[in-house]
Amino acid sequence: MRQACRSPRLCALIANSVLCATSSLVLGCSDNGTGIPGESGGALGSGGQVAQGGASGLGGSVNAGGATSSGGVLGTGGGFASGGNSGTGPTTGVGGGPGTGGTTRTGGAAGAGGTAGTTAVGAGGSTSDGDAGGTGGGDAGLDARPSVDGSRTGGTGSGGTAATGGATGVGGGTGVGSDRCDVGVYDEASPPKVLSLSGSSPTHDPSAIADNGTYYLFCTGLGAWTSTNLTSWRSAGRPLSKPSWVASAVSGVGDLWAPDISQFGGKYHLYYSASTFGSNKSCIGHATRDSLASGSWADDGAATICSNVDISDNWNAIDPNLIMDTDGNPWLVFGSFWSGIKIIQLGATGQRAGTTVTAIASRPSDGGALEGPFMVRRCGYYYLFTSWDTCCKGASSTYNIRVVRGTSVTGPFEDKAGTAALQGGGTLIAEGDSSFAGPGGQSVLFDGNKAYLVYHAYAKPSGAITLRIAELVWDSSGWPVPIGP
User: Fold this and answer.
1) Residue positions annotated with a catalytic role
2) Which residues contact 127 (CB under 8 A, 6 or more apart)?
3) What share of the chain in percent tops pLDDT 90?
4) Are residue 250 and residue 314 in the same domain, yes or no?
5) Confidence at residue 292, expressed as pLDDT on a 0 to 100 scale
C-alpha cells in the first residue's frame, strides 16, 4: 500500500462542508494536511488552446493542387501547416517550416510549388493567417479564440475544398489547428513574468478557457470564475452539482476535483474527477454544454473511465485533460501517483473509445509522486506538464512543475536531458521560492499568439492558496522557459 501523499485540493466556495475565505488576491481553503496518494494535480483544459489553422491538414499533406501545383510536393500550407513563419512555398511546397501562418508566406511566384504559384500572391493568401480562400487555413484563421470547432472548415482555397482550418479544434488540449510555432516565442528583452492579479481568486487546479472576449475558469469543487482581462476575477457560482451516478460508483465522494474545460465538435466539454482521500478507487465524469455564456451542463450520467472499481488497477482515474492529435482525434490524459500518467482515446462526442490504456509517464523511484497531467501541442511536439511531489501542505508544500515532450500523443516522452518520462524524466520549469511554496495543479492557456501557465501556489508565510498566471514561452530549442512561482 502506498504512503498517503497529500490532501485534496478544495475550491473557493462554501458547499459540501468546504469553507473558503476570500480576499482580494487569495482564497484560503481548509486543509486537513493528511495527504493522499493521487488527488487531482490540476488537469484542466486551457482556454485558448485550440485548433486554428490546421496543423497538418490545411490543404492536406498532398492536397493543394497535388504534386505539381500550388504548394508543391506536399501541398500549399503543407507539412505542419498554415504556411509557416517565413515560408514562401519553397521548392518542397511545405509553406515554410512548421510554422503557423507566418507574415511573409505568400506562396508567390517563386514558391507555392508551381512555376508561378496558383495566384498572384500564391496559395495561402497574402496574409497567410488562414484568410478566407487562402489554402493555409481557411476562414477559421490562425490563433483565433478557442471556440474553433467543426463549423470552421477553412474556406476552399487551393489547399483543397475541405482545408481544415481547425476542423475539430479544442479549447483544452491543442486541436487539429495550427502547431503554434509563433505562439509563446521567447524574447530575451522581455522574459516571461507572472501576472499581477486582483479580485477574488479561484484556488486549486485552475482550468481556463477563453471565449468571445471572456475567460472562464473552473477549479476543484467545481466552482467557476470569469474575467475579461486575465487579471481580475469574479465568482460565477457553481455550474455543476455532483451527479447521482457518482455515489453508486465511488462511495464517500464529497466535492468533485480537478476539472478540465475544453471545446470541440461544437460543444464545450467539462471532465471532472470523483474520488476519496488516499484511494485510487476513482472515476472521471463528463458533461457538455453548447455555450459558456448561457444554458446548463448535461452530464453523461456515467463515468468516462474508472480505476479500481470493478477490477484491481494500479493507477488512478483522476486529473483529466483533453488533447487533440494532429488527425483530429480526441484523447484523455489522466493519472496521479501509483503507476503514473495514462492516456486513452475518445470518440467524437467525448466518450471513451476502445479499452486500451497507455502509460506515458511515471516516477518508479520516487513513490510515484507525479500527477495533474496537462498536454499541449506546439511546433511539432506534444508537451506534457505534470506536478511533482507534495501538494496542499500550505507553506510546506513541495509541489513543482515539470515538462517532457514527444512527437506522438502516446509518447514516448523525454525531458531536456534525454531521460524517459516513464523512468522519472521531467525538466523543471517552476518551483517554490521565498514568497510562494508548491506551485502546481497547472494548465496551459493559448490566447492569440500568447501562452500562459495557469496554476496555484501557497503564499508564505501564511500558506494561503493563491491563483497564479504566468506568461509561458519556448526557447529556440523548443523547451519552455522556467518561470517564477
Assistant:
1) 205, 371
2) 103, 134
3) 59
4) yes
5) 96
